[in-house]
Queue: 2 jobs
Job 1
Amino acid sequence: MGDYRSRPSSSEGEKPQVLQPFHLTATGYNLNYLPEYIALRHGFFREQGLDVRVKIPTPWDGVLDALAEGTADMALGGIWVPSMYRNRSQHYTVFAQIANRCPLALLRRGQGDGLKLVDMVGSTVLMKSGGGASVGLFFKMLLRENGVDPKSLDYIQDLDGVMLGNLFQGGMGDYFITDNLSALAMAEHNPDVSIAMEMVSQGDIPWSVYYRETAPLTPAIFDAQKRFYVALAKGIDWVLQHDAESFRDELAELFPTVPIDVVVRVTNLFRRNGMWTSTSVSREGFDRWQQGLADARLVKEPFAYEAIVNDEVAAAAQSAK
């Protein structure tokens, strides 16, 4: 999926609305960003006077270049990046979230009911890493939370996700962690593998957030961000209020390479399990993820909420809905 922008919403003959450009850079194109795509397609940003344009750089860490160059007003990605950079290189401030849960799934060979993580000790787990470190960070945190030493498993995680998926189906490793869409599509296509865990059920975590370089918020920047988050919150509400089956044609346009029944099923799974809640970052989820990052040595110790997150804009947007 390449770069994209909000759709025009004025009717024929109507005087065009003068819109303020708002440039967003994102680390990928994912189902867990769905409310943003809905807000773009349904004109929610344009209702707020914003012409939102999105660029997805390759490689993904080009989002940091866009922020440094001033070609992007905001970046969308994992909160582990602003945490990792804090006090080491550049300072970034998180202003809001879109995904409140982990969008991954764990595949295993064969079929079976239930999974005890302790039973994975001694196994080999394949994990894609092309989009950053989040996959390994979350899974190893989950192991520690369940009393399993991550070092008691072996990992293959330095290869492309598609390559690892093909190798897993060909016999490499015991488990494979990938995004929920790809996992379900693989399980439906291949009877020799099944989904052992859908991680959206594993508690709150600020998985995908909006951030920019730390700097004083001018009234103009605050106002633009507030309008962005008002529209984003409307996108979240819209998704939560509509069963995915009712907008399957739109989902098919958004994710044309995935079987539509899979997209509908995963979208409803995310709707039911708290993937999308609000634009505000949960303190409990933040603290949990910070502990996970500290245990993984990405940060020396967990940061306080206020050191990374400025929730004032998101809170103002929530109150303005």
Note: Confidence is low (pLDDT under 50) at residues 9-13.
Job 2
Amino acid sequence: MTAMGRTAAVFAAVAVLLVAGCSSSGDEDAPVPQDSGRTGGQPDDRKVNGMRGMTLPSWNTDDYGSPQAGTYLRQIAATGARWVTFTPTWYQDRVTDSALRTTGETAGDDSLRHIIRLAHEAGLKTMLKPHVDLVKGGDRAEIRPRDPDAWFADYERFITHYARLAADTGVEQFAVGTELAGTSGEGGRWSRTIAAVRERYKGPLTYAANYDEYRSVPFWKDLDVIGIDAYWPLADKATTDPARLRQAWQPIAETLAAFSARQHRKILFTEAGYVSQRGSTTAPYSWTVSKRDGDAEQAAAYDALLAAFDGKSWWEGVCWWMWDDWPDSGETAKRLAYTPHGKPAEQVLRRWWAKPGSSGG
């Protein structure tokens, strides 16, 4: 999901996962396959059936190094979360371009190392989920470079940079891409890119496919877990009825279960989220559904997702989009934004994630 001003009511855009993900084995307590470099608290040892995660995106170079970083991480951990995802972002000008670059909105490497260390000290596992966005706004899913060879060469430079950083900092899971539907059909090129990532990072890998993209991704066999940004519309009009929303999830869950079985991999919701606006469940991917308060609808949607997937053996959990914006960077008022912080949806998370052994727990 990208920032509203950067994509103007994005269509299921992320801003990514870290997938605050799980390992491909589904065991939250499996050893990290490389030195984590932690110096502080550790995640608790309770067994859970899936990931409990929250995304903390960055919109500026020094966000992750700001004084607010530690506060946000403590707040996230207090919900019962065990994972946090970070989303360093590079940019290209147009969907047909082949060159990626950093901008003033790209998280600085030092700030990223800083917040990963703080997360580990707060007892949170981490996922790095690098994003590509467009300087002048638009949907990253529409990126279709005129020169695919040049684009993939530059993309490999970008993604392996973060793979090395992830390895150096003990990041527990890594996403090789997010919602790049315009290129994700290029199976051979993506397989080579994934191989280059594996040379540098030895932990579990995923790709965060949009909910309308995942079935056409040809390279799941190269990854450890299937990542989906789960922005399925669940209603044709505003509703605060969790039972109705759970019912809407049922055919989706059946389809996902069958897909997981065919691919021999579990499915992680690398993103899921709802603005606290009336009608958010009709278009979960939109930052601008309405200007009317929708706290109750957001809370119902959180509850319905966790109830619909709780205990399903093929489901690896969820990373919610997103925690608070950084001071002075939010383009949507907090009362209407995706964050559950200080809203009824946060209490829903606390109830679910306090349940030992639950997939939200």
Note: Residues 35 and 170 are 6 Å apart (CA to CA).
